[in-house]
Structure prediction request, 521 residues.
Amino acid sequence: MLPVIPRGWKPLARWGLAGGVAAALLGATTVLVWLLQGWLGLTDASAAYLLAVTAVAVLFGPWAAVLGAVAAFGLYNFLFTHPLYTFVVADSEQLLNLVLLLVVGVVVGQLAGAQRERAELAEARRREAVVVSQISRALANRQDTGAAASTIVDILSHAVGARAVWIGLRSAPGRERRLAATGKSPPETPAIHAVLQRRPGDEPARWMRVHPPGPPGRAGADATPAYRVPIDAAGNALGGIWISRDAAAGEPRREEVRMLAAAADQIGQALEQDRLRSEASRADLAKRSEALKSALLESVSHDLRTPLAAIRASAGLLLDAGTAADVDALRETAQVIDDEAARMDRLVANLLDMSRIEAGEVAIDLQPYALDDLIEGSISRFRAQSTGGSLAVDIPSDMPYVLADAILMDQVIVNLLDNAARHAAGAPVRVTASMENDRLRLIVEDGGPGVQAEGMVRLFDKFYQVPGSRPSARRGTGLGLAVVRGLVEAMGGQVDAHPSELGGLAISIALQISAAPSEDA
Prediction:
């Protein structure tokens, strides 16, 4: 591992450090040469200076090595070549050795320095790759770009040695809102800052200083330098990555600029993906909403017009003088009006219930009830209104209490029985109950034609009509079972559908059980 010079040093400080280290190395080498030639009797130990030149090249690069080689040439000439303590060389052989020392020192220094530069470049590229990979991983695993931005600013803060890093998104011309920031970010956008301007091709980017309108010197000279890397995508300015750093650190270095630019590009693409995803979601929602409105209009208009037509026809019969004298005809006509009005009432109730379920405004009052008491009223009304088919109820007497809302449960049972009777078309309907694990399961089933497997999946969707229903079966709005699912789940239960033992469809409701209420309750 090569020694690392502190990052962010100014050039003068770096050259000062290089000069001090080179002087120390050359001084130590001079002592070594004096020992080799004075004590050991070597004729020419000038090659030892190549060690110092190589060390300087490895530490500070090729230009420091060249200066070190020139200094080594001068030292050996001045201290060890006759006449001593002058730069005059009397012996041509010694002059040749000195020239060779200089040439070899320069070449060795250049080679060692070039190797160091390649190593530094490779290390910089490695750091860039690590940072870009971390940012890519944060964006790839994001739930949304805002959450990933908090991770990205921390990554960049460590990578570029910044006091603060923050990401701003364009909210209005000339204004940005903070998407994410490190803890030390300034509260306001700096008035004076540098903006990165990218150039086409391989030309390096450059920083352009931006000043606010007004007289020079408006901002303090000791203000913390701030730098902004624009975030663009699809030709649109989306915001920028901001960093602030100490004045002594200078402008971000080339590899740091590349990191910031790569981060800006990735954030821009992520924001563009979020925008496209949002637009696609809105388009899909609008499409589904339009389809829902069409289905609602078609279904409701049909189901309202049918009972209204029956009511109007019955009212016309009542207006007929001949019908007025027939008591049985009057009773039958009134019954038709009552039945159709009840049908319209159920339709409106289902629409209102569905709206409350979707808005999350279903009022729930869970109380312990005996199951037979809870459903007795609904079953009695159904039997009174039913004109065909048979209804069998098998509720064991030892069933535990269930936790339910009596009003919501009444609507659930009415919808299930109405659905079963409509599709059974005269076939038997059965209501049973049993215990399953820690829940009570209530099943409403019929002996109708049933539902195919592909229809089971969508049975509880709004406005879904089972294809291939009997021609004699009255079509509904497709809201009844959707309301059942919403109300049952609001009470903490579960609902599902499966083929019935009677040959048709079975709807199963799992309800929470409860202890028996106290006498005071």
